[in-house]
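Tip: read the tokens left to right.
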């Protein structure tokens, strides 16, 4: 099982630059491997890190070549969409809110990450990554949202980041790179 956290860039951004900045935060160095796919989720192109490189998270950046992302059929970017209020017998909706931006930065970490070490767990790591990446996007004047997989909620600020984890603890992994907000 894994924790998957998404950050949506709400303004146009170079997907390769978006990918490489998160890769650097994760500690990627020379020899880091990825592939470019013309079609991934919902038909969007994606840059996908190769699995098994020893980094604390797997990274995927979906984009749509400078256009708004295509959303999967069960998502809506309208918080007032009446389909969100139609519930099935279990009290669930067949639709979910999903901001429609220009890039979806997806980080994925095993739930066992950090056990027995003083670096926190996967939620702490993701809280640090969201905070540091949001600072970088702010420096690029790119608006953003992040999703807490534990609750399914989307946030446009860091006010609720503590619900995901402890960013200070998550940043203690010595393999992570602490970059300035302006850093590439």
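Filled-in amino acids:
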């Amino acid at each position: 099982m894994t924790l998957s956290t998404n950050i949506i860039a709400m303004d146009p951004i170079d997907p390769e630059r978006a990918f490489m900045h998160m890769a650097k935060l994760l500690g990627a160095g020379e020899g880091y491997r990825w592939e470019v796919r013309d079609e991934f989720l919902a038909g969007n192109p994606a840059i996908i890190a190769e699995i098994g490189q020893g980094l604390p998270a797997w990274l995927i950046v979906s984009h749509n070549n400078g256009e708004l992302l295509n959303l999967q059929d069960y998502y809506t970017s309208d918080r007032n969409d009446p389909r969100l209020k139609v519930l099935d017998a279990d009290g669930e909706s067949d639709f979910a809110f999903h901001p429609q931006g220009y890039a979806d930065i997806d980080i994925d970490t095993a739930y066992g990450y950090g056990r027995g070490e003083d670096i926190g767990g996967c939620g702490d790591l993701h809280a640090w990554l969201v905070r540091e990446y949001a600072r970088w996007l702010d420096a690029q004047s790119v608006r953003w949202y992040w999703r807490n997989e534990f609750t399914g909620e989307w946030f446009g600020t860091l006010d609720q980041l503590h619900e995901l984890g402890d960013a200070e603890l998550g940043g203690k992994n010595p393999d992570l790179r602490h970059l300035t907000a302006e850093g590439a």
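The first helix runs from residue 15 to 25. The helical segments are 15-25, 122-139, 167-170.
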